[in-house]
Amino acid sequence: MSGETLLTLDDLAIRTPDRFLVDGVAATVFAGQVTAIVGHSGSGKSLSARACMGVLDVSPGLVRGVLRYPQIDQSNLFEGVHNQGMRAQRRLMRATRKYRGGYVTYSPQSASSALNPGRTIGHQLAIAIGRRESRPNSVITAIRDVLAEVGLPPRASAALPGELSGGMAQRAALAIAIAPQPRIMIADEPETGLDPVLRRVVNELMLKVAEYHGVGLMLISHNMDTVRRCADHVVRVGHDAPDPLATDTPAPKRREAP
Amino acid sequence: MKWWMRPLVRLLAAILLPLFVPAIITGALWALPGDPASIICPPGACDGGEALAARWDLDQGPLHYYSVWMSNAATGDFGRSWTLMSGSPVYDEIVASIPYTAMLVGLALVPLMFGTLMAALGWLPKSLDYLWQLVGLLPAVILALLVAAYVTITWGATFGDWRPVALRLVLGGLVLGVADGALAGAVMGTRSVFEEEVKQRYVQIALLRGESVLSNALPNVLPAMIGQMRGRVLHVLSGAVVVEVVVGIPGLGKLLWDGTLKQDFGFVLAATFVFAMFSGALMFTQALSEIAVALYVRRSPRGVLAEVQP
Amino acid sequence: MTRRTNRLPWLVVALLLLGGLIVTGMWAPEFVDPPILENVAKDEYGTTVGGLGFFQVPGAWLGTNEYGVPLHQFAAQGASIVALPAAIAGMLVMALATLSGLVRCADVPWLDTVLQVFGELTGALPRMVVVVVVSLLLPYDYKYLLPIALVWAVLASPAAMDEAAASAGRLGGARFVEALRAHGFSATRIYLYHVVWMNLRPVIVRQGAEVMMQVVFLEIALSYLALASNSPSFTHAENMHSWAELLYLGYSAFLGREMGHALIASLILVAITAVMAQSFRFAARAR
């Protein structure tokens, strides 16, 4: 199971009328391994990650690219979408909807604003659990188990997202991402907005869960320490994306006192 | 505002409105110069004013009249006509008029609901907004006038034919549903509520989880949509008074207008009471819907109803 | 053209139309001319079939009614009936909306609650029903549009207040004010300039203009209903003529009378009112 190719992305190019947002990105996700996507802000990391889920919401949008989920079939999901505009991209979104939230899930950054404010965590987990290939005997038990995995107490299922702290919300978002028992999990800058201690906790939790379930983790981050520590594979997005393996990273400039 | 305050205010208003409105009118009637009984029996035009006042409960002050009227109204006795129909029971006229108003309002809601649904599903392009706004600028009285002219020219003064009556109702309903910004408000109000919600980050993230926009956004916009719908029904009821008189539909609004012109407080009290009952029912429905949405759909009212928009 | 320049023509149009309405009202005659039976349309038998049309009678550029009375005098009297009450009603709504927005920014929860409860209660009944009942309760010889216009403005204020409060809420409410205080601005400047002028202006001007337009249309509706019922209107004295009378005269054109010019004149006046309201709206657009 470990090491299986779960996702291949080749030569992804997405553009707006003015410029290329992403040009030539390629990534592969393997079961039980971490593929890190690095790049500066605005380099197209999240856009590439969303493209891996079949979500393209830019016009004219996709110019080139090949996306496959080898464990499902070998067809190129982007077939017929290149240079066809928003209508084709919406068709792609509809066609790939069955994979999102099931085969591939998404754990957002700043989870407090990413979760439905009007639904309790338990309700949102129940929806996610409903997307498993085989339904559990007891949804309530399944919710409790998922919460326990991410270190949340059972009573968190009755809480609204607005009632959770930032760290707890991030764990809840992670729980919702793993609840469907996906093969691929895309974690989009999970450390954003968290203090250094919590960052480490959330990262380790994510890695532990991914390893335990044999999930292929695509980690989007611009934290080079995290990438160096966790990633099995690194994909650099953007022309001046930092090299996480570089040892001669210049020291931050000291600011002159006013 | 605490989450429970708005539904509570609405529930209280719903219950108190049918009691409050006749009280205000009764109080104002006594505040007008002269004896209320003189409206029914003007001095110099008829004798026996004191006996008449006693028979109509007008001789013991507003509180007595109000309490008698309300206790009779609870049993369906809305009293008698003061001037319009000279002592005839008001109840029969009111009951006969309600179906016309109900049909008119129902027909008016058809274009409104259609526009609301289209806007909610995003099927109405923004390029058509100018059209709704232009039509919405037309006052109901002018469109109603055109309808009245059309029906009169087509059917003349025919009696016993159901077709002109049906045409008045259908066209009158269309006028109500479109004029005075009704349809424009429905379309643009719905669209703005949905657009605002769909722009929220959680909806975009839900798409990435394979969930639908509607299933995520709809429960959260329901309270606002219910509030807007109540506003639209009230708007239509308001316009119904004008349309019924101009087009010639014997509804509750026309009864209220005729009663007002003739200072027939019998009809005015009864008609406003019925309007207040209906408005109260709308508020009650809205309050219950808000509580139901909070408790059932969202499983917790905390932090939710505080942001509910009317 | 910059967006600032774009708004200027609309402001000019709006102010010109409003000014024109008020000035026309001020110059309206107290009594219209007596009938002049030469200034009517007659058929081959000499029977009056209507009034004369636009510019057919010297000095009566809007034509005449069936008695030869110039219709521009009706238009002027109609303006005098609606101009001031509509403007005052619009200003009342603007004031209430401004208050609501400021209260949201000032973070006074109890006052915010009071305003919201006020909004709930005033928005409970159909407006026209309330207006008709108020008309009934006015003293018989007190026939002015102003009290009815004020009632309408109060009934219309909840929507304006909610929108203004929502706009202020989107700004950030009290946090917005605090942030500006940290920049050294005075409270007066923050509330009046940053909150009201820069952010609430589009909402309150649009709502005020809409209510102004609604009051004019309300007067036309009430007067028309009275005419259709052969009764005196609640909104003006019997010597005055509303724009509704032009509409009523114009209706007879559908029945074969030569009064189409009256209908067109009334529609032009309605259109002018609508254009005025829309012009205020476009002039107050957000940047």
If you had to describe this structure to a student in words, what would you say it looks like?
The complex is a heterotrimer of chains A (258), B (310) and C (287). Helix content of chain A is 32%, strand content 21%. In chain A, the strands form 2 sheets. Chain A has a 5-stranded parallel beta sheet, sandwiched between helices. A 3-stranded antiparallel beta sheet of chain A has the order 2-1-4. The relative contact order of chain A is 0.18. Chain A is of the alpha/beta class. Chain B is mostly helical and 310 residues long. Helices cover 74% and strands 0% of the residues of chain B. Chain B is flat. Mean pLDDT of chain B is 84; it is low at 300-310. With 287 residues, chain C is mainly alpha-helical. Chain C has one domain (2-29, 73-283): MetI-like fold (Orthogonal Bundle). In chain C, strands 1-2 form a two-stranded antiparallel sheet. In chain C, helix 3 packs across helix 5 (145-171), helix 4 packs antiparallel against helix 5 and helix 7 (187-228) runs parallel beside helix 8 (243-251). The longest helix of chain C is centred in the C-terminal third of the chain and has 42 residues, at 187-228. The two termini of chain C are 13 Å apart. Chains in contact: A-B, B-C. The A-B interface holds A 50, 53, 55, 93, 97-102, 105-106, 108, 110, 113-120, 123, 127-128, 131, 158, 160, 162-163, 176 and B 201-202, 205-211, 216, 219-220, 297-300, 302-304.
Salient structural properties:
heterotrimer; A: alpha/beta; Rossmann fold; five-stranded parallel beta sheet; 32% helix; C: 287 residues; mainly alpha; MetI-like fold; two-stranded antiparallel ribbon; 9 helices; 68% helix
Mean pLDDT of chain B: 84
Largest sheet of chain B: none
CATH topology of the largest domain in chain A: Rossmann fold
Label the CATH architecture of the largest domain in chain A. 3-Layer(aba) Sandwich
Helix content of chain A: 25-40%
Helix-strand string of chain B: HHHHHHHHHHHHH
Write a compact overview of the structure shown.
The complex is a heterotrimer of chains A (258), B (310) and C (287). With 258 residues, chain A is α/β, with parallel strands linked by helices.
Write the topology of this structure.
The complex is a heterotrimer of chains A (258), B (310) and C (287).
Chain A: E1 5-15, E2 20-30, E3 34-38, H1 45-52, E4 61-68, H2 85-96, E5 104-107, H3 111-114, H4 121-129, H5 139-149, H6 166-178, E6 184-188, H7 196-213, E7 216-220, H8 224-230, E8 233-236
Parallel strand pairs in A: 3-7, 3-8, 5-6, 6-7
Antiparallel strand pairs in A: 1-2, 1-4
Helix pairs in contact in A: 4-5, 4-6, 6-7
Chain B: H1 5-31, H2 37-40, H3 49-55, H4 61-73, H5 90-121, H6 129-137, H7 140-155, H8 162-178, H9 182-198, H10 201-208, H11 213-247, H12 252-261, H13 265-297
Helix pairs in contact in B: 1-4, 1-13, 5-8, 5-9, 5-11, 6-9, 7-8, 7-11, 8-11, 9-11, 11-12, 11-13, 12-13
Chain C: H1 3-26, E1 40-42, E2 48-51, H2 71-106, H3 109-122, H4 127-137, H5 145-171, H6 174-182, H7 187-228, H8 243-251, H9 260-283
Antiparallel strand pairs in C: 1-2
Helix pairs in contact in C: 1-2, 1-9, 2-5, 2-7, 2-8, 3-5, 4-5, 5-7, 7-8, 7-9, 8-9
